[in-house]
Every structure is written in structure tokens, then in C-alpha cells.
Design brief:
single chain; 355 residues; alpha+beta; Nucleotidyltransferase, domain 5; Alpha-Beta Plaits; five-stranded mixed beta sheet; 34% helix; 23% strand; binds iron/sulfur cluster
Length: 355
């Protein structure tokens, strides 16, 4: 049986086909203006010369920004879950992932089974994303695929005060005019981006077993800077850009066989600090985003938000995820004091506590 994962990202579309737990076909192509055409083109490229066609595929899962627009996908799963699952296939020891995509960066924690336990996204600014690097490569007149190597030749990285796309571009142009080498400019930008990635990672937990996924993980100069800032050697899979599509193919296999289908929809927010497990779990398959849990919680634990335009769901506020036990006394204790609390008002039984 063949299981297909397709990741329609903002800049590139990726496809992975799995058979007997082996990758038998894969492809990466540019995302066009129409997601439907892009999906067919990417799938066609993956199957080119293999003699396979869509009719041979048993089950397909789509992920990425354009995931809801893939006509031949049976289901769609968030890219956060797919990246965690994809990297877990290569390295089950990974607990912290930095996913550097075309339009956003995400810091993700996952368990030994590849399920997400915490995540945070930076999608408010283009700085440090694939789009940003494309723009800088254009300004410096260096091929995009070569910017990593060029940065590694730097002797004195130029400090950049900003990676705001607009200001960084004008700073780069000013440096070029002053005669600063391209390698020093790129190394300086990589340094600034890596510093920002470190800040993002600190908002989840930086644990041993660290990996970088997404297209930017192919940029050796950037990886070197992130290694230096984070202080951990990242585990890199053969093509980090395919990680989300691989995760989607793994989900396709599991969903087809019915295995763990329900568990995969649960997101666990919290931590274990040696005194116990402090996780609030939200079953996103059940949650309809009604928002009733938000006002009843005296600790202000919840918010309802949408991830990349998908249906809004309840989440635990980012600033509370690493100190949940201080904010929430635990379900039983809270229930003994309050008539109404999060689990009581949730008609869909989407919330549970580990303590
Ligand atoms: S009350 Fe339940 S269903 Fe409604 S937003 Fe909260 S978790 Fe989701
Ligand atoms: S148990 Fe009480 S304090 Fe804890 S999250 Fe639910 S409503 Fe908030």
C-alpha cells in the first residue's frame, strides 16, 4: 500500500510517498498561485518515472497553508504535528524542533512518540523566513542555494540591528555600497536570525535531541549559527524540507489503519518539573472553538485562536505554558472551589488535566 503526504507551503509544495515504511518517491516544487494546480503538479513530479499514479495511492493526508485545497487528500493535519511526526521517523530522540519555513518559524516540543507537547509560532514578521532570505539573496545577487556556503566564508560578520525585512534590506544595500563583502553581510544576518530563533526556542523548552526542519535547514551558514547560539548539535535529516510531507504520509498510514487517529488530535500543553506532570490537554478533534472555557477560568489559562486560517480552537496561553501549576491549582482542587470551571462548561469534553 502507498501512503501519500503533501505539504502545500507558502513558497514550496512537497510530496512524500511511503510504502512499507520506505520513502519510494518525493518531490519539491514552487507553490503557484492556485493550490489545486500546485498539488497536482507536485504529485506528478514525485511520481515521474516511477510508473505510479494517483490510482495506486491508498490514502493521502495534506498539510501546510494550502492543505484544505488539495482535492485528492482524504484529510488534513496541521504542519506542526506533521513536522514533529516526520522528524520522529528519523530521530525518535528529538524533543525540540525549530521549523524554519517560507513564511514563518515555529518552535515545537514533542514526545518520544512524535506527538506535539508545546509549540509557538512566529508568523508576524517575515524576518528569518525563507521569503526573507530570498529577498536578501536577490539584493546581494547570490543564488539562493549558495547563500549558506557564502556566509561560511565570512571573516568579520557585520552586526545587524534588525531583521525586519524592510530595514535589513536597506542595511544590506548600505553595507554593499560601503564595500562590505557579501559573506560578511550574510553572516551578520544569519547571526541576527539565529539570535531571534533562540528567543523563540526559549519560549518552549530547549531539550537535548534538537532538530531543524524546513527549507532553511539546508542553509549551512544558518545551521552553523543556530548550532552556535543554541549550544546543541542539530540532528538533520537527509532533506529537512520534506519533513512535513513525510509526517503527513505517516499520518496517512496511521489514519488509514485507524491507529491512534484520536490521540493525534490532542495537544498537550505543559511540562514535567520533577514534582509531577502538569499538562492540560485539548482534544482539537472535539473542540469546536465555542470559547466557553475562556471566561470561567479564574487563572485566565485559555484563549481561542486559529492556526493559519483553520477553524479556531481552544489553546493554553503561551505565557502560562511553562508555569501552569502556578496558575492553575489542578482540576480537582479548582472544582472543589468553583461551581463552574473549564471542564464543567466544556460541553464537548475537550479539556483534561494531568493533575
Ligand atoms: S469550552 Fe470546550 S469546546 Fe468550547 S472552546 Fe473551550 S475547549 Fe473548545
Ligand atoms: S481547572 Fe480551573 S484554574 Fe485550572 S484551567 Fe480549568 S478553570 Fe482554569
Amino acid at each position: 500500500m502507498i501512503f501519500l503526504g503533501i505539504d502545500i507551503g507558502s513558497r514550496a509544495a512537497k510530496v512524500v510517498a511511503l510504502q512499507d515504511n520506505t520513502i519510494i518517491a518525493s518531490a519539491i516544487c514552487d507553490t503557484g498561485p492556485e493550490s489545486v494546480k500546485t498539488a497536482y503538479a507536485a504529485m506528478g513530479k514525485a511520481f515521474e518515472g516511477t510508473g505510479l499514479s494517483l490510482q495506486d495511492v491508498t490514502y493521502t493526508v495534506a498539510t501546510g497553508y494550502g492543505r484544505v485545497l488539495v482535492p485528492f487528500a482524504s484529510e488534513n493535519v496541521s504542519e506542526i504535528s506533521c513536522h514533529a511526526r516526520g522528524i520522529n521517523w528519523y530521530f525518535p530522540s528529538v524533543r525540540t524542533i525549530l521549523d524554519m519555513g517560507g513564511q514563518d518559524c515555529k518552535a515545537i516540543n514533542c514526545g518520544a512518540d512524535g506527538r506535539v507537547t508545546n509549540f509557538i509560532m512566529n508568523d508576524k514578521c517575515a524576518g528569518g523566513t525563507g521569503r526573507f532570505l530570498e529577498m536578501i539573496a536577490e539584493v546581494l545577487n547570490v543564488p539562493l542555494e549558495g547563500i549558506g556556503e557564502v556566509a561560511l566564508q565570512s571573516r568579520t560578520a557585520i552586526p545587524f540591528n534588525t531583521i525586519c525585512a524592510v530595514f535589513a534590506k536597506s542595511e544590506a544595500i548600505t553595507c554593499l555600497r560601503r564595500g562590505v563583502t557579501r559573506s560578511d553581510i550574510l553572516a551578520g544576518l544569519n547571526d541576527a536570525i539565529a539570535t531571534r530563533c533562540l528567543k523563540l526556542l526559549k519560549r518552549v523548552s530547549i531539550e537535548k535531541g534538537f532538530s531543524i526542519t524546513g527549507g532553511i535547514a539546508k542553509n549551512k551558514g544558518m545551521v552553523a549559527k543556530i548550532r552556535e547560539k543554541v549550544g546543541l548539535e542539530p540532528l538533520l535529516c537527509p532533506d529537512p524540507q520534506l519533513c512535513g510531507a513525510l509526517g503527513a504520509a505517516i499520518f496517512a498510514r496511521e489514519r488509514y489503519s485507524g491507529k491512534a487517529a484520536k490521540e493525534d488530535l490532542k495537544i498537550h500543553y505543559g511540562y514535567n518539573d520533577g514534582t509531577g506532570d502538569y499538562f492540560i490537554t485539548i482534544d482539537t478533534g472535539r473542540c469546536d472553538g465555542c470559547g466557553k472555557c475562556v471566561p470561567v477560568c479564574p487563572a485566565g489559562v485559555f484563549l481561542v485562536a486559529s492556526e493559519n486560517g483553520s477553524q479556531p480552537k481552544a489553546m493554553v496561553k503561551e505565557e502560562l505554558r511553562k508555569r501552569l501549576a502556578f496558575a492553575c491549582p489542578g482540576y480537582q482542587h479548582c472544582r472543589s472551589k468553583l461551581v463552574q470551571n473549564c471542564q464543567v462548561v466544556c460541553e464537548r469534553a475537550a479539556i483534561s488535566h494531568s493533575w
